Structure formats: C-alpha cells, structure tokens
Amino acid sequence: MKYSRAYFLEFVGRLREIFHMEETCEFFLRLGLVFQDLFEQYRFLYGERVNWQEHLFRLCCLLGEAYQGRDEFLKGIDREREKNPLWFFDRNMVGYVIYVDRWAKDVKSILKHRDYLHEMGVTFLHLMPCFDVPEGENDGGYAVRDYYTLRDGLGTCDDLKEVAEILKKEGIFLMVDVVVNHTSSDHLWAKKAKEGESFYEDFYYFFPDRVVPDEFEKTMPEIFPETSPGNFTYVPEVKKWVMTVFHRYQWDLNYTNPYVLYEMVKIILHLANGGADILRLDAIPYLWKRLGTSCQNEPEVHRLIQIFKACVSVVAPGVLFVAEAIVQPKEILKYFGEGESVGKECDLTYNASGMVCLWEALATRQVRLLTRTTCSQPHLPSMVSWLNYLRCHDDIGLGFDDEDVMAVGYSPREHRRFLVDFYLGNFPGSWARGLPFMSNPKNGDVRISGTLASLAGLEKALESEKSEEVEMAVGRILLLFKVLFSFRGVPLVYYGDEIGNLNDYRFREREEEASDSRWVHRPWMDWEKAKKRKNKKTIEGRIFQDVVLLIHKRSELPVLWPVASQNILDSGNESVFAYLRSTETQALLVLANFSDKTQLVSERLLGRIGMEFPLRDVISGREVVVVDGYIVLVPYACLWLVEAC
Ligand code: GLC
Ligand code: GLC
C-alpha cells in the first residue's frame, strides 16, 4: 500500500460525513500537511497488522473530535501562533517549576500567589504532575491512576482550565506533564489486565515466565536499583511478569499496540484542550523496547513523537513539546528531530549535559569539560531550543559522554567518583551537602539529591557561621543564575531556589518518601521565609532580588533571547567559561569565573571576537576593570559585557 493523494481524499470524504466540516476548513488544511507523515509512521509501526489503516482512521476521527471540542479562545491563540511560529523563542521566556500542593495548596490557589510570579518575571509555569494517583507511594505524581481527573485536594480539570486562561491572559503560559511511558498499577487498564482481560493485558508487556525478562535484563540498566531493582515485577493475580522500568508500581505501556497509542494521543489532546501551552513528555526515551538494547532512544521512539506532534499540530498547533530525555548528549539532540524531521518532534529539550557540567565546573574549579561539552552542542535552528536549568525535582545523574571526559584528561570512573564524593560532602574541602540517590553496587553508580543552595554550599556555610563562607556560597549561587539567564535557551527556575531554600530532611520521617532522597529538594514553600525577599540584607533578599534583576536585564536585551546566536570561546583561563551571544546589531560577552580565586582574562580575547574597550557589565552597570591588559574577575564573578559606547 503506497501513499497517494487519492488515499488522503478518501479519508477526507469519510471524515466529512462524520464531522460535517468543509473540505477547505482549517482542520483539513492542517491534516493535509501531516497526513502523509502519519500514514508513513503508522505503516512503519503497525503495518504488519491487517487493520492498520482502520487504526489510522480511528486516530483521524479522534483528531476531528478533539478539534471540534477545542474552545474558541484557544483556537484563536493557535491561529496567532501559527502566524508567528517563533512566538515562544523570540522573546524573554522564563519558566518556574512548582508542586501545586506544596507551593499553593490547590490549583485555584495558584492565583493567590501570582503576584510573586509577576514580581519575578516568570512567563511560564510548570505544574508537576497533578493527576489522580494512588495514596502512598506514587513517584511524586508520576504513577498516574487517571489522566482525566486531578489528584484529591487539587481541584478539577475545569479549575485548571480556568486558571490556565487567567494566567495566559496575564502572560504566563502553562506547562504540564504527559506521563507517556507508564501508568500506575492501579490504573483502570492495569486493573483490567489483573482481572485477566487480554485486551488490556496487551496494553503492557506481560510475560508468562522469566525467560524473556532475563534476556532483557542482560542489557537494560536499572533506574531505581535501591527501591525497584530489575525491570520486571511479578503480578500474582495473573501469575505473570510485567515490565516495570521505573518503580514496581509503574507499568510500562506497550506502544507496539496501536490502541495504546490512540489512548495516549487522546490524553495529550485532552491536556491541550484543557489549556496547556507546553506538554512535557516524561521519560520519553523509554517508549519503545527492543531485546538486546538498553531500551532507550530506539528509532521508533522518534516515530511515536512525530505522531504525537502531528496530531497536536492539527488540533492545537499552538502547543509546544518538551522532551524529558536525560540521556547521553548525542542522544538528547535527536529529540529535536534530525535532518528533515527537525521541527517535527520536540520544540525544547532539557539541557541535562549542560546542567551537569556546570556542577562539574564548580567542583573542579575548571571549565574544560563544560567548554568541551557545550562546544560540541551544534547550532540549533531558531524554532527549537534548550531548556536550561540548574536544579529540578529529580536527582543529578553524572551522564557525561565518557569520550569528552577522557578528552579533557580525566578517567570517567574516577572523575564520577570524585564528583559524587564532592557533592555528598565527603571530599576534603567540599562545601556541598548533597544526599546519595540510588546507589548501585553493581556498577558503582550514584546520583545526587539536594537543593541548589545546599549543593552550592549555603547550608554548610550557615552552620559554620563564617561570613566569608556564606559570601562564597551566595557567590556560587548567583554565578549559576547568571550563566542560566545568559546561556542560549529558555531558562527554568525550580521553586525555592530563588530564595536559597536549603535541604528539607523531614522526608525521612514520612514512610512513603523516606527511601527516595529526591524529596529532600521538594519542600513546602515557606511563604514567611519568602517575605524576606523584600529585604536585601537577608540571603533570601540577595538571591531573589538578583534573580529579578537578571530576568529584567535579560528581557531588555534581545541578544540574550533564544533566537540570538551563541559561540563558546576559549577564554585562555582554565577557570573562566566564556561565550559570545550575538545578533546582527549587538554582541554580549559572558565571562564566568568558576573558581574561588581572582582570575584574569587577557584582552586579546576581545580582538578575536571584534569587541573593543571600554566594556560595561550590564548587570552592575559598571565599566570593567582592566589591569595590564587583563580583565579582572573576582571569585565567582560573572560579567555580561557589552561595548560601553
Ligand atoms: C521522569 C520524572 C521522574 C520520574 C520518572 C518516572 O524522569 O522526572 O521524577 O521518577 O520520570 O516517571
Ligand atoms: C533517570 C531517567 C530519568 C529520570 C531519572 C529519575 O535518570 O533517565 O528520566 O528523570 O532517572 O531519577
């Protein structure tokens, strides 16, 4: 069966009868743009099934229903965004991540705190998953029991839609999670599978014995080796094994089954129609499993994303995708789409390797690995972007590219061990207070939990009561923020980091959290503490007010927006990270000193990039200090330099 225009027209004819839409309407025009791709992807993934074309037809019916169900307000926004596809990238976008219950109580109460968001300059809000989950352990919301209901106590989907509309009108967009890879073992599909319904058993990967699971285990890594070792869980109700890559209560969905894909597209469109502007595709690399592989980043994953994207571009073309793909640097890039597929997958992906390298540079006081890793990130087309971040709700995994680590002169194993020791506070001279996450004795892997401030030394410094140490810690925090807000991409701030929240160890007393150290950096927002942000003499005030200043300066400088280009430079100093942001009319040089000593950068660097003295640091407004031909950078200084005249 080959694709032909006549085939498409036949589909249009059938759909018109059902939906009573004109052939020339927006829906069919949009469908026409992606239909061939949908056809090819379906044929590739499901072509062996005799009825694969009926599955494709069902999918198109779903699109028709969702299109007709989308409200006029959102359709209006879609049309504006279609006219300006760079709507998200050609301005100053700043994200902020919250747990609804811990930050605001419930969805409607977000509005009570929205002045705080405006004060900061936040333009999009990531709500950590707020769907219905079982009581007790639910992986912080990532074990979804029902995608169409909000979690107890958070409100209703209508509340969420209303809040989304109010925020949107005030210039704050909403990002929500789509937990695509798995459901809770309490989801209706899972329950029916446990009751022995074979239709729903096919929604997951079930095996009658350990033969195939054991084969898979030979090449699959373990994500949560301490609490959920292995990738399969025994289900006594049916006396079978089910695939559970994450926790034992998170069952992996089987995308070789087109019914699963259909249901997930339905969920995606429901969220888009519920007012979300950005959808975060959770754990996306894991969507397709193949024996003999790590079951991550398989080519079919990209085909599935392209189907999701095509569907959204018909129903809700204003909605963007973020890939949560915490994988090797080379693999991360593929989630933007490769070659002809650029623009057909995710619009944003987390810059996980950039984030890890920032922490690496702070610990080593050297920027070799940071420079090498960021240099090898290619120039991205302007319709996609990195989502840059310093901390998030997850652990920090040291997922560098081993080749990069060796190229800058370290042994990957020893270097990882050093960094773990350093951030767990075990290395002599370390300032950090991190906690280990998921130590794996089999391969020596350990990941790191902790808030930005605790990892950057504030917790330890405050305990020491030494003001110089506190100064250094604040210096490190501000350095990281200055890089975050000037590096090419869209910055994302994790709640509480803007007021220097420290680790919260109370999770140890809660049974359902105690074994997962990530809860140490998922605190309840302390609004009393947040009030101190108004006072510049407090640490909260120093960090918050500087963050606000940086966001404000950034918004005035298009050269710092995602569409402006970036070149990573060799500063000539091992501790100074340097990059040039530029547009046709402006250039801005960033110099960031990752060491606790004063550092010098030769003025020859300016000659190489065609900039001239005098230079002004736009953050402080002061002219840069030059001594004997060297720019002087005090410990942890980060300058945003432009030509002064
Ligand atoms: C994502 C989430 C993480 C969760 C995992 C499983 O990686 O960020 O918190 O544990 O998916 O859903
Ligand atoms: C692994 C996964 C990532 C997830 C994290 C949670 O790194 O690759 O998706 O966020 O574990 O700890």
Globally, the shape reads: globular
Hetero groups? alpha-D-glucopyranose
Count the beta strands.
25
Helix proportion range: 25-40%
Any idea of the CATH class of the domain at 564-643?
Mainly Beta
Sheet bearing the most strands, described?
A: 8 strands, parallel, barrel
Number of discrete helical segments: 23
Strand content: 15-25%
Radius of gyration from the CA trace? 25 Å
CATH architecture of the domain at 564-643: Sandwich
**Spans of at least 5 consecutive residues with low confidence:** none
Span from first to last CA?
Answer: 65 Å
CATH topology of the domain at 564-643: Immunoglobulin-like
Which structural class do you get from the secondary structure elements? alpha/beta
Question: Can you tell me the CATH superfamily of the domain at 564-643?
Answer: Golgi alpha-mannosidase II
